[in-house]
Design goal:
The chain has 409 residues and is an alpha/beta fold. It is built from 13 helices and 13 strands. It has helices spanning 5-14, 30-41, 63-66, 89-97, 101-111, 179-201, 231-247, 261-270, 302-305, 308-321, 327-344, 360-371, 385-401; strands at residues 19-23, 58-61, 69-72, 82-85, 116-120, 124-127, 133-136, 141-151, 169-175, 219-223, 253-258, 281-287, 293-297. It starts with a helix and ends in an 8-residue tail after the last helix.
């Protein structure tokens, strides 16, 4: 029997390590672990008592951070698309108190696209359903502008200010960004704040502005910020995050979880974790059949310490043997195909399906149906018995045709 997530959170808190890097497959419990850590370090106050804000003790980025944002898709009124921000103290703190709007824009354009500029709203009024004017608070909405330019239209009489100078107007198109770009934008808010925190804590002047705002902060928990990034931006983010962590004062302890072997490896190398096994921790998080968890200490990057492809194979074989193939096993199967194809020099993982009898396109379609359902796990039904057999069939295709060692009967 393993441990509960609450017990693992206590273990991580008490480890006294500057960096603890955790690898886990999707669905294992990374986000739940981040919540358990938050509740341990900054629990909600008992009714009638005044508690400190959680951000004074821990900063955390996880899937719940993204829940603060939602789109206003008013197609009936044909209004411009706006990303709304749920009322909360976190974004108010980042945008109003810390004034990080410009840094957020810069980070978004660095990791997503420099063709789109996020713009936070100023306070304005709207007419509600009862015909009353109400205020829309500042920094409660974001629009995304494509190629904004300042211009004076040639041939038209310019509007001038009181000094007779032309007033330059801004022209742009407003777009709804992709789900991946939205995730990058939300990460940019957190990362911009983290930069400010570390800069403030490193300020040697105790009388400097904001010098006491973060003095109680001790933990930063970052859960999988790279879900929507391509490899180039993923590596860039990992390198920049590692540099920021390295510059942080000793009072800050970081816990980072990820399902990405590449992100894990870049952080592992950039932070020099292989040289400091006594000061930092590298782990593999596993969920056991009884619902408890193991946090196994690992040394080396994911390729050396996890035998990543063999670990995937064992999980799939166990699920097939126990007739417990679920949706996420299709994602693991695709990961195994991708890793094998990359090692063998193929451009596409689907190339390895050519050795399997039947329709290559049908296999790709089935795998993609389930492996691309992570944005909403309720959108895709459970696999049918025939689709479960596809996992067995395609795993055997890899083992039989692409150099996987087979144990003698």
């Amino acid at each position: 029997m393993g441990q509960t997530l609450e017990e693992l959170a206590k273990q991580l808190r008490d480890a006294n390590k500057k960096v603890q890097l955790i690898y886990a497959f999707n669905g294992t419990g990374k986000t739940r672990l981040s919540r358990a850590m938050k509740e341990l370090i900054a629990p909600k106050p008992v009714e009638g008592e005044e508690g400190a804000l959680s951000r004074e003790k821990i900063l955390y980025y996880n899937a719940f951070t993204e829940d603060l944002f939602y789109w206003d898709n008013d197609l009936e009124s044909d209004t411009i698309p706006r990303l709304k921000i749920q009322p909360n103290s976190f974004t108010d703190w980042v945008l109003a108190d810390q004034g990080k709007g410009v840094d957020i824009v810069n980070n978004f354009q660095k990791y997503a696209t420099d063709k789109v500029t996020p713009a936070f709203n100023s306070v304005y009024q709207v007419t509600d359903k009862d015909g009353k004017m109400t205020d829309v608070p500042a920094n409660s909405e974001v629009t995304f502008r494509v190629n904004p330019t300042n211009l004076i239209i040639e041939g038209e009489e310019p509007i001038v200010d009181e000094d007779g100078k032309p007033i330059v107007t801004e022209q742009y198109d407003v777009v709804k960004i992709s789900k991946g770009e939205e995730s990058v934008f939300i990460w940019s808010i957190f990362f911009s704040l983290l930069e400010e925190v570390i800069l403030t804590l490193n300020d040697a002047d105790p009388d400097a502005e904001n010098s006491n705002k973060f003095e109680k902060l001790e933990h930063v928990f970052i859960d999988d910020p790279v879900t929507s990034l391509d490899e180039n931006h993923l590596i860039e983010l990992a390198v920049n995050l590692a540099a920021l962590i390295s510059s942080a004062p000793v009072q800050l302890e970081f816990i980072i979880t990820t399902h990405s072997p590449l992100f894990y490896n870049v952080l592992h190398n950039e932070l020099g974790l292989k040289k400091k096994p006594a000061n930092e921790g590298c782990y593999l998080l596993e969920q056991l059949d009884d619902g408890t968890f193991n946090l196994n200490t690992k040394y080396g990057d994911s390729n050396k310490s996890f035998s990543y492809h063999l670990h995937l194979r064992r999980i799939l074989e166990q699920a097939i043997a126990e007739d417990k193939v679920e949706r996420y096993h299709f994602t693991l199967l695709r990961n195994l195909y991708e890793k094998t194809a990359g090692f063998l020099g193929h451009n596409q993982w689907g190339d390895l399906l050519s050795s399997a009898p039947g329709s290559k396109e049908a296999y790709v379609r089935v795998i993609n149906t389930f492996s691309h359902s992570s944005l909403s796990t309720d959108q895709v039904r459970d696999p049918t018995p025939q689709e479960k057999q596809t996992v067995r069939f395609l795993l055997e295709n890899l083992i039989d045709n692409y150099g996987y060692w087979k144990e003698d009967a």
